[in-house]
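Bumping with the actual sequence this time:
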Amino acid sequence: QVQLVESGGGLVQAGGSLRLSCTASGRTFSQYAMGWFRQAPGKEREFVAAISWTSGSTYYTDSVKGRFTISRDNAKNTVYLQMNSLKPEDTAVYYCAADRGRRRTVVAGLAQADFGSWGQGTQVTVSS
């Protein structure tokens, strides 16, 4: 199992940017597809973005396409979420998660049930 720790959240004005990081422990991080999810107050947790183990495939929910970018550095056991042009509706706790399986090359359509390890979350607040 992979242990995950998120960082980089905070308070930002609308239109601003933040970069979230998720660092994993465990030597097999590079073999897992990774995802970012978020949960706003009073709402269910939702998918944001995912990246394959080789970085060859990425997938985004429609509401963040063109604004958010997921990337990874396997040498640092870290996955990132660069968030630009932030909107108040992006306010949520953001979680990173690791795939249950290894070496997944296609990440389109992944759901929460496909992810087996989760971080504790980091708060992102976007003021208007």
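The tokens above came from a reply further down the thread. The mean pLDDT is 95.
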